[in-house]
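Researcher: Structure for this, please.
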Amino acid sequence: MNEVSLLSYSLPLIREIGHMWDDDGTSGHPDRHMETINVFVYVKKGNIQVIEGGTEYKITGGEYLFLRKNVPHWGTSLYSPGTEWYYIHFHDSLNDMSLEESPEFSHYQQSSLILEETYHSHLKLPKQGNILNPEYTELQLKKLNEDFMSPHPLRPLYLSLMTYQFFIDLYMNRLKEMKKTKQSRIVGKMIELFSSSASAKLTSKEISDELGMNYAYLSTLFRKETGKSITQFQDELLIEKAIKMLKKESVNISEVSHALGFSNPFYFSRVFKKVTGVSPTTYLSQTYRS
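Model: Predicted structure, token format:
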């Protein structure tokens, strides 16, 4: 499947936004190969047939489709009479190398820490889907189309920002469906378990016993779904708790280390730096304290 992705720190760069219709059903999707342009198509009413790289897609009213750059696409059937649609043509900064090097953005609940590595990931947009609220979506697309035609001096930047928000909304709608899978439910339970732990990391036996499942399976599933190991995830949650304690309470590093179950302050400091990139002392010198 030719899925479209965006780097987390890069906006979709708009080339064209438009609104089209075919009252008589005399046209079909154009035969083209757009080397650097991704395409988003939303059908307001009617039907559109597109073949991308040999795979046929049919889009009806209230549905959308992303077409990936550098993959030929065409249509063999005419639009149904009265078909109306919006489209967005956009560049991205992804190439095959950057896509391979960056992990997929993890949509699972994280700690409150926003780490730099979060932005070195890519967001995989849903290939095709139904719109849950067509009226709202069509208002958004109408506004984007109007803004595309406006003479605003910051038009390209504004359009890119608004389109990114629009795409993220589509992504969030798809997450509601993804969370219904068995694997997502298991990982969700694991994250709830780790988050509710008062202090110290849970052992492999404790995790296995609590969920009634083999730890090796849970470990493999967790890494596959979140992109992180169980140890890494629990470390981040503990460091989040450590930062809150150090910022709001009159405690030192040794006391925090002990309270969170670390074997000694030196090991705590090593984990702290691994998670945040800096030592506890440096982190606190760069932030506000109550």
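Researcher: Any notable elements?
Model: The first strand starts at residue 5 and ends at 7. The domain at 5-177 is CATH 2.60.120.280 (Jelly Rolls).
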